[in-house]
Amino acid sequence: MLHVVPAFARIGEENAFAVLARATDLQRQGRDIINLGIGQPDFQTPGHIVEAAIKALRDGHHGYTPATGILPLREAITADLHRRLNVDVSPELVMVVPGGKVTMYMAILMFGEPGAEIMYPDPGFPIYRSMIEYTGATPIPVPIREENGFAFSAEETLSLITPKTRLLILNSPANPTGGVTPKAEIDALVKGLEKHPDVAIMSDEIYGQMTYDGEVHQTLLAYPQIRDRLILLDGASKTYAMTGWRLGWSVWPKALYENARKLAVNSFSCTNAATQFAGIAALEGPQDAVHAMLKEFDARRKIVVEGLNGLPNVSAATPKGAFYAFPNISKTGWKAKKLASALLEEAGVATIGGPDFGVHGEGYIRLSYANSADNIRKALARMGEFLASAKPT
Ligand code: PLP
């Protein structure tokens, strides 16, 4: 018998991938499926970014790079942070990693162990909890509530900190809710965190450029009082439609940087070299494609919200960021996962049940609007017909 360590019995998953697999299966069987389950932009990576990667390969960039990433990319990242968010970060504290997920993996590995508590948003990205469980630490969900605009509540978050808390994970703009935590709330949270100097903070800002209605993304990097324990998670996946390239980056406090570098050396060695050159082109090149994508997401967002609010017993808050809607379906009589499954199997619409993002996700489903406006309209019509005729099971 093989003796795999018990931690692997605790490791979780992202159900979005299972839904995608099922949706693809059904499509192969000839079913017409509209996929509102997947969390990736339905746009192509802009051409000049693709060209930069091809050029890098032609120029012979085929070898390992430094584990922390090539300096010109790290400099492009700091310049971008300065331009967009008006924060100063040294390239020495920036680490290039193969995708946004890698930063959370490293941060949770650094702070998770039996007896430690790690706080994370619920509903939230499922890998936070999965990795916390893997380390043996106790996951402490921070409820993200609809009545609070799906923003973090500084008061409630601070009330959950105990002497065992090692790491607090924040995410705004948020998956799966589309919530954006306002500056006043983040100000209050940081003020409270000053009383807990032993708690590290990981701020997942991968949707930082995706806000609507003039909503301003407030980066945690803007608070010098927590910079010595703040880990920033960011990357190119969502902003530049580059999910498959695997390009993320993090900003680490000086005291943790070496740990992150060593984890890189011990696992992936470095991020794909050509991808790193593509990253420079993404950050330093024209941003028109980013703006055009956001404009399109914004138009679809309005269609989704209006459509959802027209469905029987469904209500949807207007998401302020990312590209997800998180309608409240509790009045339909359906449990969220059952509804998501029935919508896929019977109505041909893929969505994700809220509980796949945590216990506080019951009563909600997630729709990604990374699909065409026509398909979104069609999906909403199917959902309407389904809800009007099917009996909750
Ligand atoms: N953080 C959040 C909140 C996400 O929603 C995702 C992807 O869906 C990630 C991180 C991971 O991004 P990547 O694909 O770059 O690993």
Structure description:
The chain has 393 residues and is of the alpha/beta class. It folds into 2 domains: 6-44 and 288-389, Aspartate Aminotransferase, domain 1, CATH 3.90.1150.10; 63-284, Type I PLP-dependent aspartate aminotransferase-like (Major domain) (Aspartate Aminotransferase, domain 2, 3-Layer(aba) Sandwich), CATH 3.40.640. The chain is built from 13 helices and 12 strands. The chain has helices spanning 7-10, 15-28, 47-58, 71-85, 100-111, 126-135, 154-159, 183-193, 254-266, 273-284, 288-309, 336-347, 373-389, and strands at residues 34-35, 94-97, 117-122, 138-143, 165-171, 200-204, 230-235, 248-251, 324-325, 349-350, 352-353, 365-368. The strands form 3 sheets. It has a 7-stranded mixed beta sheet, with helices on both faces. It has a 3-stranded antiparallel beta sheet with strand order 9-12-11. It is globular, with a radius of gyration of 21 Å. The structure holds pyridoxal-5'-phosphate. Pyridoxal-5'-phosphate is lined by residues 39, 99-101, 125, 171, 175, 204, 206, 235, 237, 243, 248.
Query: How many separate structural domains?
Result: 2
Q: Would you list the SSEs in sequence order as H and E?
A: HHEHHEHEHEHEHEEEHHHEHEEEH
Distance linking N and C termini: 41 Å
**Given the C-alpha coordinates, what overall shape results?**
globular
Rounded mean pLDDT score:
97
| CATH class division of the largest domain | Alpha Beta
CATH topology of the largest domain: Aspartate Aminotransferase, domain 2
- State which percent range the strand residues make up: 5-15%
Q: How many distinct helices?
A: 13
Low-confidence stretches: none
